[in-house]
Amino acid sequence: MAQKDLKILVQLGESSPLRTALNHAVVSLSASSQTVIRPHVCLNGIEGIEVLRKISADPEVANTRFDIGLFPIIAGKDIWLNTQLFVFLNNLRMPVDLVALSPRQSSFVVRSLPEEFQITIIEKLKTWFFEEVYPNIKEGMETISAQFSGGDPLIESDHQNRVFDTHGGRRLDVPYTESRIAGLNLFHAVVRSKIFYERQVDGYQEADYLIEAVRSGQKKSIEDFLKSMFGLRNLLEE
């Protein structure tokens, strides 16, 4: 018997009042008076914005799947789970069929639901945390303790080194820590810049424009490359 996936709130193909209520709550993000709640490319991705648009077209029948996840922040002895909602539409392909809501957007969605559905989601979240997340955290901490006790904290390994961020053992060097640092610095430079504090320009919208401009430039570069290759092929065939 397959083990139940505790992080799933609503399955694809499930016709239930909870799914319909979640769909409508997701649609209501766009009507929020707070800019941080409204959908943004910098928060939800270009593909995510398209998924939200499709759900908004007909929330009553949109075939969605809702998963829960975490965006934890640790400060001293304090830990915030920052629960997230991940919404798939029709398929489970990433990123084209997925919108990852920010923790604040996710909170808004859950708080927008009728009380009975809020209780249902909190119970599911509690079960997932105590049966899966918390045991995994404990096991991860034990792995770190073991490395301090008898391992090599300086080993060059992406997977085995849990003390330092080192690269080794795989061809691709994935910037796990750098991506968050760069993202934070870009956030303060673009989103929370002078224009944000003056309240004259939506800082999140400025970040959206920046991402879309980069994406557009990448697309044009690819198109130009393909055109040049196609032209070269024609030349060789003549």
Question: How is the secondary structure organized here?
Answer:
Layout: E1 8-10, H1 17-27, H2 41-44, H3 46-57, E2 64-70, E3 73-75, E4 78-80, E5 83-89, E6 98-100, H4 103-112, H5 115-150, H6 176-191, H7 194-197, H8 203-237
Antiparallel strand pairs: 1-2, 2-5, 3-4, 5-6
Helix pairs in contact: 1-3
Characterise the protein shown here.
The chain has eight helices and six strands. Helix 1 crosses helix 3. The protein has 238 residues and is an alpha+beta fold. It has two domains: 152 residues, no CATH class; 64 residues, no CATH class. The longest helix has 36 residues. The chain has a four-stranded antiparallel β-sheet with strand order 1-2-5-6.
Radius of gyration, taken over Cα atoms and rounded to an integer in Å: 22 Å
Structural class: alpha+beta
> What's the assembly state of these chains?
single chain
Form type: globular
Order of helices and strands: EHHHEEEEEHHHHH
Unreliable stretches (pLDDT < 50, length at least 5) are none
> Proportion of β residues?
5-15%
Concise account of the structure shown:
The chain is of the alpha+beta class. The chain has helices spanning 17-27, 41-44, 46-57, 103-112, 115-150, 176-191, 194-197, 203-237, and strands spanning 8-10, 64-70, 73-75, 78-80, 83-89, 98-100. The chain has two domains: 1-152, no CATH class; 175-238, no CATH class.
